[in-house]
């Protein structure tokens, strides 16, 4: 079966002189029925990418295929996709049912089928009993469900969502994330979801494309982007990460040794093709680091001073100043074995070698 959506070498520049390269060459393959997110900071090109899939923007170069067919030059209303926006764009003078039925009426769908389809989708988005309400009588979350139902009732093969939960408060947004995932699973439609919120993308998606500066830096499942980031940018953007860099001093089996001075030594898995003596860039997640009062005898040991202690309930977050990296963040689960540390304490940091994630040297 053809993939639902394919982007091949897609580029987009705005303006003729001083052109802004919003998307600089994106290749993506999105499977049928997948919940796929485009994730990245403001201005990275995710909305432009989504709008090109919808047909609202024409690519400057490249090709867009929907279910195997080239749609690069096909207008939006002839593409079998629908889009949901952050501001819902409901018709204020129509009630819930009529808002949802609007598209079917325009297509002149027969009454019996219209009733059945609208009823089914109202059930899926759990608005049964609220069919006669006007948009102003609904909460933000309920309005978003109407917008979703209105887009899904036409049975598009893919639904494109641009920050659809952006206007909701945190609690409601978290509830709607779980709801959206359930709805997507129930209807089985391909969802392409744009967000700058990494926890939102990780919660809902089968796969995530992390974008930066008009390019996809990594496209993988949530666990892989968190645990095996391809680039320092991905490591920093997804969750909290400590990014270190220092020259290696020796190779010991499949580990690199980084002797910083007579006392401090770091060990990392050797990246392919590394030349001893050149810098190694690696990240360690805060929850993988242990804070000790005494220098460990084996493994990595980095000297530091406790600068900040923040109690977070289940865990405590420490900021430790080191010579190699000014602020090293450490998360420690709270429990009977928790470290009893104070600001200003001299400490040692260590972590299992396999939890240091190295990056291959940039291609030159
Ligand atoms: P945000 O989350 O802030 O919407 P984004 O990742 O979705 O960001 P885009 O909206 O795709 O980013 O914008 C990418 C770049 O293209 C930005 O530099 C933006 O200013 C520029 N851009 C987007 N639309 C236009 C336009 N119509 N004309 C000129 N420049 C544009």
From TrEMBL:
<dbReference type="GO" id="GO:0015417">
    <property type="term" value="F:ABC-type polyamine transporter activity"/>
</dbReference>
<comment type="function">
    <text>Part of the ABC transporter complex PotABCD involved in spermidine/putrescine import. Responsible for energy coupling to the transport system.</text>
</comment>
<dbReference type="InterPro" id="IPR013611">
    <property type="entry name" value="Transp-assoc_OB_typ2"/>
</dbReference>
<dbReference type="GO" id="GO:0005524">
    <property type="term" value="F:ATP binding"/>
</dbReference>
<keyword id="KW-0547">Nucleotide-binding</keyword>
<keyword id="KW-0067">ATP-binding</keyword>
<comment type="similarity">
    <text>Belongs to the ABC transporter superfamily. Spermidine/putrescine importer (TC 3.A.1.11.1) family.</text>
</comment>
<dbReference type="GO" id="GO:0043190">
    <property type="term" value="C:ATP-binding cassette (ABC) transporter complex"/>
</dbReference>
<dbReference type="InterPro" id="IPR005893">
    <property type="entry name" value="PotA-like"/>
</dbReference>
<protein>
    <recommendedName>
        <fullName>Spermidine/putrescine import ATP-binding protein PotA</fullName>
        <ecNumber>7.6.2.11</ecNumber>
    </recommendedName>
</protein>
<comment type="subunit">
    <text>The complex is composed of two ATP-binding proteins (PotA), two transmembrane proteins (PotB and PotC) and a solute-binding protein (PotD).</text>
</comment>
<keyword id="KW-0813">Transport</keyword>
<dbReference type="GO" id="GO:0016887">
    <property type="term" value="F:ATP hydrolysis activity"/>
</dbReference>
<dbReference type="InterPro" id="IPR003439">
    <property type="entry name" value="ABC_transporter-like_ATP-bd"/>
</dbReference>
<dbReference type="InterPro" id="IPR050093">
    <property type="entry name" value="ABC_SmlMolc_Importer"/>
</dbReference>
<keyword id="KW-0472">Membrane</keyword>
<dbReference type="Pfam" id="PF00005">
    <property type="entry name" value="ABC_tran"/>
</dbReference>
<dbReference type="InterPro" id="IPR008995">
    <property type="entry name" value="Mo/tungstate-bd_C_term_dom"/>
</dbReference>
<dbReference type="InterPro" id="IPR027417">
    <property type="entry name" value="P-loop_NTPase"/>
</dbReference>
<dbReference type="InterPro" id="IPR017871">
    <property type="entry name" value="ABC_transporter-like_CS"/>
</dbReference>
<dbReference type="Pfam" id="PF08402">
    <property type="entry name" value="TOBE_2"/>
</dbReference>
<dbReference type="InterPro" id="IPR003593">
    <property type="entry name" value="AAA+_ATPase"/>
</dbReference>
<keyword id="KW-1278">Translocase</keyword>
<feature type="domain" description="ABC transporter">
    <location>
        <begin position="5"/>
        <end position="238"/>
    </location>
</feature>
<keyword id="KW-1003">Cell membrane</keyword>
């Amino acid at each position: 079966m053809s993939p639902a959506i394919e982007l091949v070498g897609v580029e987009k520049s705005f303006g003729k002189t001083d052109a802004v390269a919003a998307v600089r060459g994106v290749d993506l393959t999105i499977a049928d029925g997948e919940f796929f997110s485009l994730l990245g900071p403001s201005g990275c090109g995710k909305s432009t990418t989504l709008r090109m899939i919808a047909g609202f923007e024409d690519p400057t170069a490249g090709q867009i295929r929907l279910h195997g067919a080239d749609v690069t030059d096909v207008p939006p209303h002839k593409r079998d996709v629908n889009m949901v926006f952050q501001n819902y764009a409901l018709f204020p003078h129509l009630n819930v049912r009529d808002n949802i039925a609007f598209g079917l009426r325009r297509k002149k769908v027969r009454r019996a089928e219209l009733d059945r389809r609208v009823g089914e989708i109202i059930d899926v988005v759990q608005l049964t009993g609220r069919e006669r309400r006007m948009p102003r009588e609904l909460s933000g979350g309920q309005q978003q469900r109407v917008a979703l139902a209105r887009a899904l009732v036409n049975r598009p093969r893919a639904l494109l969502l641009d920050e659809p939960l952006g206007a909701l408060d945190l609690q409601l947004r978290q509830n709607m994330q779980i709801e959206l995932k359930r709805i997507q699973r129930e209807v089985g439609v391909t969802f392409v979801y744009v967000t700058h919120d990494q926890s939102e993308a990780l919660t809902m998606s089968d796969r995530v494309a992390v974008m930066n500066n008009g390019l996809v830096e990594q496209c993988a499942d949530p666990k892989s982007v968190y645990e095996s980031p391809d680039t320092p940018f991905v490591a920093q953007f997804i969750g909290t990460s400590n990014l270190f860099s220092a020259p290696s001093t020796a190779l010991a089996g499949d580990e690199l040794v980084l002797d910083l001075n007579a006392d401090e030594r770091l060990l990392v898995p050797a990246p392919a093709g590394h030349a001893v003596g050149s810098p190694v860039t690696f990240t360690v997640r805060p929850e993988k680091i242990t804070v000790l009062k005494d220098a460990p005898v084996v493994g990595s040991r980095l000297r530091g001073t406790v600068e900040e202690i923040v109690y977070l309930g289940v865990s405590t977050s420490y900021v430790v100043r080191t010579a190699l990296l000014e602020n090293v963040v450490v998360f420690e689960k709270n429990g009977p074995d928790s470290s009893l540390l104070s600001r200003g304490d001299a400490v040692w940091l260590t972590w299992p070698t396999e939890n240091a994630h190295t990056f291959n040297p940039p291609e030159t």
